[in-house]
Design brief:
This protein is of the alpha/beta class and about 350 residues long. The protein contains 12 helices and 12 strands.
Length: about 350
C-alpha cells in the first residue's frame, strides 16, 4: 500500500485540511477492506468525520488533517488484517478506529511503547488469532506477555476475561505451561455449592461458563474435552485452592470482586515457579454480603506499588460488545456518581 498526502491551509484559527490518497496493491484485498457496498468505508466516515471515496484500488480521504491521518492509520491496520486472512467485521472497523485514536498517545503502562504506526498486539492459537481492538486491550495483551501477575479491571464487555483465557490457551498450546487452572467465586446466585445438584464440576460449571466459552473459541472442542478429562485444564473452585502451589500453570481468577480479602490473599500466594496468574474483575459489580470488603479492591490498594505486578484498567470506551453496552455502562457510572446525562443530578 502506498499513500500520498496533500495539506491545504484554511483561514487563521481553523484546522488544516488534508487530502490523502491510498493505493492498494491487491484489488481483491482492497474490495475486502471496503466491505459490501463500501460499508466499512461508510462506518469510518461516520466514526471519524471524514470523506472517503473509492475508485478501483485507490481511496481518497478528505477532512481535518488529524482525522484524515487517523482514517489512514485505521485503513492501514484493516488492510494488514485482510492480508492475514481476517474477514473484516464492523467490530474490526470499530477496533481500528479506537486504536487509531490512541496511536499517538503515550500510554501510562510501562508495557506500552509509543508508536506512530499502529501495530496491535495479538494472541494466536492454531484455531484462531485475536487482535487488540482498543488501546487498553493492546496494553493488557502486552502486559500478559511480560508480567507474571496481571490484574484486568473494568466493566463487562471489555474482553478482559476472554483475552485472559485466550492467552492461557496459547501458552498451553506452545508448551510454555503444563496446565490451565480456572477459578471463580461461586456467589452470584447466592447459593452454597453443597446445595447444588451433581458432582463438583457440574456444581461449578454454570459459574465458569464464560471461561469455557473462551476456551472452545480458541481450541478445538475435542482438545478441550480431552484436556478437562486429563486434568490439563482444571476447574478449581476458589474454596479448594487453599494449601496448593500452582507451578508451570496459567491460573485465572475471574469475577475476583466477589472474593473476600482472605480469599484473595490465599489465591495470590498460590503462585508457583514458571506460573502466570491473571485476575479479572469489575469493582462496580460486587455481590458480596453487606459490610463485606472485596478482596479485589483491597488487593489493588495493597499491591499498587509492588514491582512485577501490572494492573490494566478498562472503561466503557473499551467495550467491544454491542454499542448499547458501552452506553449502558456509562449511564450506570453517571448514576453512581450522581451526575445525569447533561451534567445535572438525575431526577428521582
Amino acid at each position: 500500500m502506498t499513500a500520498t498526502t496533500e495539506l491545504k491551509n484554511r483561514p487563521s484559527g481553523a484546522s488544516d485540511m488534508a487530502h490523502i490518497v491510498l493505493t492498494f496493491d491487491n484489488n481483491k484485498l482492497a474490495s475486502a477492506l471496503y466491505g459490501p457496498f463500501d460499508e466499512n468505508l461508510a462506518r469510518l466516515e461516520q466514526k471519524l468525520g471524514v470523506d472517503i471515496r473509492s475508485k478501483g484500488n485507490q481511496l481518497s480521504i478528505k477532512g481535518d488533517s488529524t482525522a484524515a491521518e487517523q482514517a489512514r492509520r485505521a485503513l492501514d491496520h484493516l488492510y494488514e488484517l485482510a492480508q492475514k486472512g481476517v474477514e473484516l467485521s464492523p467490530s474490526d472497523v470499530d477496533g481500528a478506529v479506537r486504536l487509531s485514536l490512541a496511536a499517538d498517545d503515550q500510554l501510562t503502562l510501562p508495557t506500552m511503547e509509543r508508536k506512530g504506526k499502529m501495530a496491535a498486539a495479538q494472541i494466536s492459537t492454531r484455531k484462531r488469532t485475536i487482535y487488540a481492538r482498543s488501546a487498553n486491550q493492546d496494553a493488557y495483551m502486552r502486559a500478559l506477555e511480560r508480567a507474571e501477575l496481571v490484574f484486568g479491571i473494568g466493566p463487562a464487555g471489555t474482553g478482559k476475561t476472554f483475552l485472559a483465557v485466550a492467552y492461557a490457551a496459547m501458552l498451553l498450546e506452545r508448551g510454555m505451561v503444563e496446565r490451565i487452572v480456572l477459578s471463580r467465586p461461586a456467589v452470584e446466585a447466592g447459593e452454597r455449592l453443597g446445595f447444588l445438584p451433581g458432582d463438583m464440576r457440574e456444581k461449578v460449571d454454570p459459574y465458569l461458563r464464560p471461561l469455557y466459552d473462551a476456551l472452545y473459541d480458541m481450541m478445538p472442542a475435542e482438545k478441550v474435552e480431552r484436556s478437562l478429562a486429563a486434568g490439563v485444564i482444571e476447574v478449581a473452585p476458589l474454596a479448594f485452592m487453599r494449601g496448593r502451589t500452582l507451578a508451570n500453570a496459567a491460573v485465572i481468577l475471574d469475577e475476583a470482586q466477589n472474593t473476600t480479602p482472605m480469599q484473595m490473599k490465599m489465591f495470590l500466594t498460590r503462585l508457583g515457579e514458571n506460573a502466570r496468574m491473571i485476575v479479572t474483575g469489575d469493582p462496580s459489580q460486587i455481590d458480596l454480603p453487606p459490610n463485606t470488603k472485596s478482596g479485589l479492591v483491597e488487593a489493588l490498594r495493597v499491591l499498587d506499588e509492588v514491582p512485577g505486578i501490572v494492573t490494566v484498567r478498562f472503561n466503557e470506551s473499551d467495550v467491544v460488545r454491542h454499542p448499547l453496552v458501552a452506553a449502558i455502562v456509562a449511564a450506570y457510572d453517571r448514576d453512581a456518581t450522581g451526575v445525569g446525562t447533561a451534567g445535572k443530578p438525575p431526577q428521582s
